[in-house]
Amino acid sequence: MPIIDVYNLVKIYKTGDIELRALDDVTCSINKGEFVCIMGPSGSGKSTMMNILGCLDVLTSGKYMLDGIDVKDQNKAGLADIRNQKIGFVFQGYNLLPRADAIENVELPLLYRGISGSKRRKMASEALDRVGLGDRIHHRPNQMSGGQQQRVAIARAIVGKAPILMADEPTGALDTKTTVEIMKIFSSLHDDGTTVIVVTHEPDIATWGERVLRFRDGKLIADEKAPQKVTEHEAKPGTEA
Questions:
Q1: What are the Cα distances from residue 103, in Å, to 87, 141, 153, 159?
Q2: N or C: which end of the chain has fewer CB within 10 A?
């Protein structure tokens, strides 16, 4: 059953008299519980697609249904509510608050939901345990490696139990070993029923998914089964990185 449906999606950016068609007549759907990778070269529209799907940007024309909600009908407050309730985000740059420790960073989405302090702390602690950082809840970002910071970001994305996890180049700043550890966490979340959508330009990352949506020049040029892994990965998500 689709959790995401887009029809004839168009996104145009205007600079003076110049128009850039970042997305051009894109139609596709993503089912609940799928693991989908969005791929394409720089400038292909893949990050714009992620921003539209994540309600971080608004479409120019077309239709976007997210879990039964017509996104185009939503105002700014409605879009913010969708982001908070429906979607967890993971970014290449982690986007952690530098002066807050791990558990405070993870609690942030729950604060916007008005959840009480004691319940926030419990949920955030459980999310950090899930990503293998239960012993680092009071470490600040500058006291953690890149891989650990990304795991904090994943914990923040999943703490509210949103049905969709979206990640934009989540392993772009990480080494190969740490990349495998992060992707194993995504795979585990997918196994538990989370819909996972990852933007990447790396073919190895696409092997973790079920489907690949390929973009070029703003167009969806292929919707295909993900390639299989060539070798079996050995790293585990709870290991030090």
A1: 19, 11, 11, 11
A2: N
